[in-house]
Design brief:
Blueprint lengths: L2 H34 L3 H15 L4 H7 L4 H26 L27
Helix pairs in contact: 1-2, 2-4
């Protein structure tokens, strides 16, 4: 086999693998959204991380440092998923009456003490 054919075949195989991983990530995100109803900010964080991981601008770290450049993708996606998990747990605790809404990004679940106004509303 010609080395160019091997390189082209390897590239196609890698693209198919990344496409399958992308589809699985989107399906997993849809399942989480339907089942746990995370706040919109958490959804936006994960979608943004997935878009960053698939964007052409993200190829720069991989081109500079090789496979180690994928660590930024893993870190960003892990941070976004961690943020979503935290928001889901806080929402679950608040709706169950076990916690306060401190740090919860979903303003609809915050309960203000009597007489305190909502920030930004005069």
């Amino acid at each position: 086999m010609d080395p160019n054919e091997i390189g082209a075949t390897l590239l196609v195989v890698l693209l198919v693998i990344f496409a399958i991983i992308g589809v699985l990530a989107v399906v997993a995100l849809i399942v989480v959204i339907v089942r746990f109803r995370p706040p919109l900010t958490a959804i936006a964080a994960v979608v943004g991380a997935l878009i960053y991981g698939a964007s052409p601008i993200d190829l720069i770290p991989e081109a500079v440092v090789g496979p180690i450049g994928a660590l930024d993708d893993i870190g960003i996606i892990a941070a976004a998923i961690g943020f979503m998990v935290t928001q889901i747990r806080k929402r679950r605790d608040v709706t169950a009456g076990r916690g306060d809404a401190a740090g919860l990004t979903d303003m609809s679940l915050r309960k203000l003490p009597p007489g305190e106004r909502t920030p930004g509303r005069d």
